[in-house]
Amino acid sequence: MNAPVSDANRPLLEVSGLKKHFPLRGGFLGGVTGYVYAVDGVSFHINRGETLSLVGESGCGKSTVGKAILKLFDITDGQVVLDGRRIDNLPAGALRPMRRRVQVVFQDPFSSLNPRMRVRDILAEPIRNFGLARSRAELEERIAALMDKVRLPRDAVNRWPHEFSGGQRQRIGIARALAAEPELIICDEAVSALDVSVKAQIINLLQDLQQELGLALLFISHDLAIVEHMTHRVAVMYLGKIVEVAPKRQLFAAPRHPYTEALLSAVPVPMPGAQRERIILKGDVPSPINPPKGCRFHTRCPYAFDRCRAEEPPLRQTEAGHWAACHLHDLPAEQNPLAGAKGAAVLAV
């Protein structure tokens, strides 16, 4: 009999078999004519204080996973467990404690802020909603501390969102997420709309806040160069499924899925004059309305063989902490083109 998992060792977030299928309606009576299989059986976990990056091409289902965890819509199947308690089936009235513990930073730092509210009111709203200040003085103290944390001047609380630059607005979005004192922040393409130099500042800020506050981060992105600098583990998605999960260094040094290998080949080489063979995938991403049978990547995979077209590969461990969904790993090492695969050089220290 297994010993019970202690709170300290239990993952903060566990996602198991998550599915979200959006119905398509049409015809004279508006009946369901099919489904968009946006997320189709995704499982992963995030430990306390850890950053897990969810990466993949646009439309692969990354943001849908984040919204499903936040319970912005009902899921089709699967479970979302926060600190040992299932939250995907909670009624609306029981969601308030979860809302405080899990916050979000959205992609667009302008549309995510209410243009009719000053910064002071934007930051005060979650503090009031969760009853975190017992007096006006304590409220003002908390707002000032939040501005300090995101490195904005305290007197900026009297300004409107349109008076800030994009990077400053994103700092306000981060401060708003921190106002609820969360344990997990979902960053949904949180730096993709920012200039390159500003991206680096926001990434450094998130890393500093994580170390200071012990935050866990789910960092959703399509930019592997950014991911490499700030994550602990990486989960790669393709067409609604996770195809590889590994610690950052293992994944960047030796990818174990052809899709990850192709993504890494497109990352800019940091060393001047260095060479890397670019892998150009053939064809387009199939429609999530009618995904291919077998491995969903086989229509674009340079290594696909008959089994890939007929049988869907499970996500399984190829080495300690490294998981991949690929039939190539059933072949002898000398026949497996990924057995000695080398990815991008790791940039982060």
What would you say this structure looks like, in words?
The protein has 349 residues and is an alpha/beta fold. Helices cover 28% and strands 22% of the residues. The protein has ten helices and twelve strands. The strands form two sheets. An eight-stranded mixed sheet has the order 6-7-8-3-9-10-12-11, with helices on both faces. Strands 2-1-4-5 form a four-stranded antiparallel sheet. The chain is globular and about 70 Å long. It starts with 12 loop residues before the first strand and ends in a 25-residue tail after the last strand.
State the helical fraction: 25-40%
Q: DSSP strand (E) fraction? A: 15-25%
Query: Residue ranges: pLDDT <50 for 5 or more in a row?
Result: 344-349
- Specify the number of helices: 10
Structural category is: alpha/beta
SSE pattern, N- to C-terminal: EEEHEEHEHHHEHEHEEHHHEE
Overall shape: globular
The strand line-up of the biggest sheet is 6-7-8-3-9-10-12-11
Note the gap between the termini. Answer: 41 Å
Compute the gyration radius: what is it?
A: 22 Å
Give the rounded overall mean pLDDT.
90
The biggest beta sheet reads: 8 strands, mixed
Number of strands: 12
